[in-house]
Each structure stands twice: as C-alpha cells, then as structure tokens.
Amino acid sequence: MAQWPGGARGALCLSFDNLGVDEASSATGALPALLERLAERDLTATFFAEGVNAELAPEALREIAAAGHEIAYHAWLHEQWTELSAAEQAANLARGVSAFKGLGLEVSGLRPPGGQLGEGGTELLREKGLTYASPAGKGAGIEDGIALLPFQWQHVDATAMLPGLDPVREQITGSPGQIDPATFTTYLNREITENERQESFMAIVLHLPLLAWLGESNLATILNQLATTKSWVAPCDKVADHAQANPTLFASATTLDSTSWA
User: Fold this and answer.
1) What angle do CA 48, 5, 207 make, to 5 degrees?
2) Domain residue limits at 32
3) CATH number for the domain including 88?
4) How many domains does the chain have?
C-alpha cells in the first residue's frame, strides 16, 4: 500500500503562523495578496492563528476559510505552551476553540508555540476533540489516536534570525550567523526536493509578519516549487485524516524534538 494518496511522492503541509496578536499588526495587511498568490497556484494551506484573532480580526479568519484554507490553533496569545500547566492548557484551548466556533470555524489541530506539547500532551487534544498536533519533530505519525504532523526548525523562516537556534542555522549553512532570505529560500527548496526523494512528510512554517522580510520574489519561488512538486501538498487536517485512516502505516513514526526558540 502506498503511504500517500494517489501514489504521491511524499506529503507536505504549507503553514502560516501568527495572523497577528494586536490591532497594530501588519500581518493581516499582507493577507489578501498572500491568498491571491496561493489561489494562482491552486495551493491550500493551514493558518495557525492565535485565538485572540477571533476578537481582533474575525473578518481575516473568515476570509482565509472562505478561500478554502484551514484555520488551526496557535494558543490564545501565543503563550509558550510548555510554560502552561495541563489545566491552563485546557482552559486556553477551550477558550480558543469556542471563539473560533463562534465564527463558524471548526478547529482540528494545534501547533504549540515553542514547539512542545508540555503537560497536557496528546491526551488533552483528544479530550477537546482535536485530531492532530504539529509540534517540533520529524516524521508524520499517530500517538494515542492523535495524528502528529511535526515541523523541523530548519523549515521555519524565523529560524533564520531567532536567538537560541544557532545550531540549526549551522546545520543549514555551516555558520551560526543569521541567514538572509535568499539563502533560506534556496535551502527550503532543496528540502522540498529531498522530501520528494525520500517520500516522507514535511511541514513548512512561514509567519505572516515575516513575509515582508522574505520578500515577494522569494515567496513566489517557494510557492512555485510547491506547485510543481510530486509530493502531496495539503492542509494539515487532510494529512491528519489520511494518517488516522491508516494507523498501521503511521504507528510510532514520529520523533519529537525538545529544541525550543525560547
């Protein structure tokens, strides 16, 4: 049995984090052009949004969903997930899911800010009716009935500049120094090709507030690569559904990463 639908050579989730956590955020201003670029290439993505955006930017959330993209959860105010107790995580998640539901948006997944699931683990997600998590790690898998669709730090745009991730930058370029947008783009496109060669899973993490840093040309280069890859490019919820439907193929297939941006 093929691991991916339609005999695709690998699976890939394009995701965008941080819709914005205050009214002054420039992220929502970049949204219409981004949605247009995605539509031009028939690409669908997952937007991991903070719950507060249900209050501050409800129309932006509706616009994303109306364009066929997935809305998923990224904590209420981008709280460092591992700094919350299990009870605090449960309350945070319940508040966000309820706020999104009030806009007619169903949430299937969580990407924990900082990359780790913390005390609540996958049990909390299952209790709250979610089907997947996207923590830091490698390899799509299933744990206790929850699909794990991890991201690797080298596939995150913010890694190019965040303090504490010098070792990851050294993996990318051989130097711990900050990475310029063109270098990051070239590396990411090589990784997309490598994911296809290995027929594995990859999550790309871009941040709406960093699209100006990345630049229109580099974004176009990444999106063009995704539009032509032989991997299955799909929102996280669709990949999670596939893993849930084929649990034997995805059992114990994830290795989590304890590295954090903090």
Assistant:
1) 20
2) 8-254
3) 3.20.20.370
4) 1
Q: Which residue has the tokens 């409800």?
A: 58
pLDDT tens-digit profile, the chain (262 residues): 458 999 999 999 999 998 875 544 556 788 999 999 999 999 999 999 999 999 999 999 999 999 999 999 999 999 999 999 999 999 999 999 999 999 999 999 999 999 999 999 999 999 999 999 999 999 999 998 999 999 999 999 999 999 889 999 999 999 999 999 999 999 999 999 999 999 999 999 999 999 999 999 999 999 999 999 999 999 999 999 999 999 999 998 999 998 765 5
| Global pTM value | 0.95
The answer as to whether 225 is a domain residue is: yes
